[in-house]
Design a protein that fits this description.
2 domains; 4-stranded mixed sheet
């Protein structure tokens, strides 16, 4: 009896340490981490009984490449693993031990790798901070200590707890404090690995749009814990307070510029629409490439159409986009459209791009 008691106590303490929010030392996974991985694998079995796992090497490789960018920012020495399941609803969730799932719907929903990075970073923070265990304990009104006992029992209580862990993960049913920690932690990871922090905002704004279109569909990864507008607001506030750029066009793949040969004319295009054109010669090409370079930097989704103006200074008429002078009339060939015409085209293109992302809070 004494031996059994000590055996159970040892198992209990091992699991308890695995549930502790204390950060593991860098290096190989500890025995505590290994116990957490074993628990995660059991929950994976439950998930994959309900959804078919997708083994498409192209989709998996895309996510694995993104994961490798984020892993150096991880605090715990877990061997993160990405899995894809067949489900139309856009969702992503993480399980104990470093297992991160993406649905095929989420892969189709994300506009860019940047948005996928934002989603993955969010799930990694949940794993790093052991949020799923903390939330499961809260849901069962247990302490982490009691939760460890229930899991160690391997009986009916363990089955109930495992089902709760799966539910928390799949529905992303985290409380406000845990969700906020994951949201803001993801922003820091995005910044650290060189992806635009705006991606975390754009994907959430588009989920807000989906919510309006399909109000009775569970939004999965962006469930109302807390509500979406609240999350967008505090993420935007953090970006502004940190002095980081909040430029939505890159993760949305909008306001993309190019200089294209179109017969005997060269055209500067934005999102495939001709904004300015001129004769097909080197002088025109040089001018359009210079203007294109400036538009890439200054033509942002966050501008108002009235921020695109034609004015003048001591050197004559000029076109401004936001704070920058984009072109001057004195260097424009005579057979090109006027700066006024160019500015009107840019305003139309900007408005159309903003309509493509109507939930953007551009004036915040």
């Amino acid at each position: 009896m004494v031996k059994k008691a000590f055996t159970f106590l040892g198992l209990f303490l091992t699991i308890l340490l695995a549930l502790s929010p204390v950060q593991a030392f860098a290096g190989a996974p500890s025995r505590d981490d290994e116990k957490e991985v074993a628990l995660g694998k059991k929950v994976c079995e439950q998930v994959e009984k309900k959804w078919e796992r997708v083994m498409d090497p192209v989709r998996v490789a895309r996510l694995e490449a993104i994961l490798q960018r984020l892993v150096p920012e991880a605090e715990r020495p877990l061997e993160y693993e990405i899995r894809v399941i067949s489900e139309d609803q856009p969702n992503a969730f993480s399980l104990p031990g470093g297992f991160i799932y993406f649905t095929t719907g989420m892969l189709g929903f994300a506009r860019s790798d940047s948005e996928l990075v934002a989603i993955m970073a969010h799930e990694m923070v949940h794993t790093e901070k052991k949020h799923i265990m903390i939330q499961s304990a809260r849901n069962e009104r247990l302490s982490l200590l009691a939760l460890a006992v229930a899991i160690a029992s391997k009986g009916e209580a363990a089955a109930v707890i495992m089902a709760n862990i799966a539910q928390v993960a799949i529905l992303n049913g985290y409380s406000r404090d845990l969700e906020k920690e994951a949201d803001l932690g993801a922003l820091k990871m995005l910044k650290a690995v060189g992806f635009p922090v705006s991606a975390a905002v754009t994907v959430m704004e588009r989920l807000s749009e989906e919510r309006l279109k399909h109000p009775y569909v569970d939004p999965g990864v962006f469930m109302d814990h807390p509500d979406l507008p609240e999350r967008i607001a505090y993420m935007t506030r953090m970006i502004r307070d940190a002095g980081w750029d909040l430029h939505r066009k890159e993760p949305l793949h909008l306001l993309r510029t190019a200089v294209e040969d179109r017969g005997n004319r060269l055209s500067l295009t934005v999102d495939g629409k001709a904004a300015w054109s001129g004769p097909s010669d080197e002088k025109t090409r040089h001018l359009l490439e210079e203007v294109r370079f400036l538009l890439d930097r200054y033509l942002q989704m966050e501008l108002l159409p009235s921020d695109i103006t034609v004015g003048r200074d001591e050197n004559g008429p000029l076109l401004r986009v936001g704070p920058a002078v984009i072109a001057r009339e004195r260097v424009v060939p005579k057979d090109m459209a006027s700066l006024q015409s160019f500015s009107e085209n840019l305003r139309k293109i900007l408005v159309e791009a903003q309509r493509m992302h109507p939930m953007g809070h551009y004036l915040l």
